[in-house]
Amino acid sequence: MAFAKLEKKFFGTNGARGVTGKDMNPSFALGIAEAYGTLLGPGKTVGIGMDTRTSGPALDAAVKAGLTACGCNVIDFGILPTPALQYVILSKKLDGGVMITASHNPPEYNGIKIIEADGTEMGDERTIQIEQIYLNGESKPADWDKLGTAAEDFEAYKLYIDAIVSGFPENIGKGMTVAIDPGCGAACKTAPEIFKRLGCDVVVINPEFDGHFPGRLPEPSEEGLKNLSAAVVKSGAVFGIAHDGDADRAVFVDETGKFMDGNITLALLASYYAEQQPGGEIVTPVSSSGIIEAAGKEYGCTTLYTVVGSPYVARTMREELDMGRNVIIGGEGNGGVIYPKHQFCRDGGMSGAVLLALLAARNVPLSALIAKLPKYTMYQEKRTTPKAKEITAHMKEFFKDIPMDTRDGIRITKGGAWALIRPSGTEPLIRVYAESQDAAEAKELLDVILNEIKPFLA
Ligand code: MG
Question: Which of 41, 109, 166, 245 supports an S-S bond with 102, CB 3.0-4.6 Å?
Fold first, then answer.
């Protein structure tokens, strides 16, 4: 099953984002919070969290003002990872949440992500309702005697750490060193503690909250993780882990300091569960590498593809589980992985714990596990064009005689290769992916597509 994407005005796939002082400011946050409080109705309780950005406190104050003015009670959980806020909302049975974060975007950005009572990111329909209330000026302020209350709980993130640690045998990381780079983001509070409690020795770089991100940008890119790689090699760590600004994603380097592609990470993490639950189901977007499907197949697991975006993966996982399927894991090739027995959102902290458990179970170096996976070559290109929709229509016709999946752009399969042609949801550009175990075959398919779309480019 697939969830179709609906057009939204301010909110993208992962919340509303903008540049501080321009399109992301307290007046916008106030308006969205009033609209959200109106949607929920008075008397409801909403948890608020933020990452470490300099604009966090101003937006946090505005969100609190908007919600309490509309009769909602708020609990401020302070700085914590997005998955920690999601876990806390679910376990404390709150009515919803607001996370103030721009995830992996540069420091000048910030954003607002709305969380449902079940801990998932709000779906398109209800997000559009909030936008409509905001745009139409239909927010309903509460009377003076019905205003919401504001409280603080800066210890609640510990529930999240407890939940992760309790899922693994005691001291599973004993004798192993892990190098950690929370990147001065929200994971400073959680990642070192998670590994320590799993029995590991830890080495931490960029360990303090800092919204200027002096060590590296919030996006854990290969370039940005050079210091982590060095720390891994120097300390003899079994791997290095880095998080984005809000720690829903985890990116790894192996014990030699080599950067791991997110698709390889998901393939390995999937194999941990696939081995325990052969025949299960893996859920991932159409943009993911075939290496994930191949890793699952080894244990008789099937892979179900969805539209691109973690909320769609999460909701598809829930739907599949409701239909009685054994969904073992889901996620994207960018380091965002969802563990259905834990919670239905991407969880960078959990990814670190699972990789540790995989190493403990197999008792071989991480690089050896990676070397055993089949080799795929994926080309990823993007081209600026105002005619992304025309390109999609043209390519649909061009490839009409070969197998095609049209749930998000066009995904075609040709011989041993597949390709995805997909318009961006937020920018005037088209993305083209092509992949095969045979690099030449992937390149050939990529070139055919790039050549065919040339007349549509700006
Ligand atoms: Mg993130």
Answer: 109
Biggest distance spanned by C-alpha atoms of the chain: 70
pTM exceeds cut of 0.85:
yes
* Mean pLDDT per 10-residue interval, the chain, length 458 residues: 69 88 95 98 98 98 98 98 98 98 96 96 94 97 98 98 97 98 98 98 98 98 98 98 98 98 97 96 97 96 95 94 97 95 96 98 97 96 94 96 94 96 87 97 97 92
Q: 């009515």: which residue's tokens? A: 95
**Catalytic (active site) residue 139:** no
Tokens found for residue 90: 């679910």
Report the separation in Å between the CA atom of 251 and the middle of ligand 1, taken as the mean of its atom positions: 11
216-230: burial string, b at 16+ Cβ within 10 Å, e else: bbbbbeeebbebbbe
Question: Is the dihedral angle over the CA atoms 189, 195, 196, 200 positive or is it negative?
Answer: negative
CA 308 – CA 372 distance, rounded (Å) = 28
Question: How far away, in angstroms, is 1 Cα from ligand 1 center?
Answer: 25
Residue type, 142: A
Query: Which DSSP category does 260 fall into?
Result: P
> Could you please report the per-residue DSSP string of 353-385?
HHHHHHHHHH-S-HHHHHHHSPP-EEEEEEEE-
Cα gap 396→3, rounded to integer Å: 21
Give the 3-state secondary structure of residue 90. helix
Q: Which of 55, 103, 289, 351 is catalytic?
A: 103
Rounded distance from Cα 279 to ligand 1 centre (Å)? 30
Q: Which residue has the tokens 């999601």?
A: 86
How many A from CA of 250 to the centre of ligand 1?
9
Find, among 271, 258, 261, 221, the residue nearest to 242 by Cα: 221
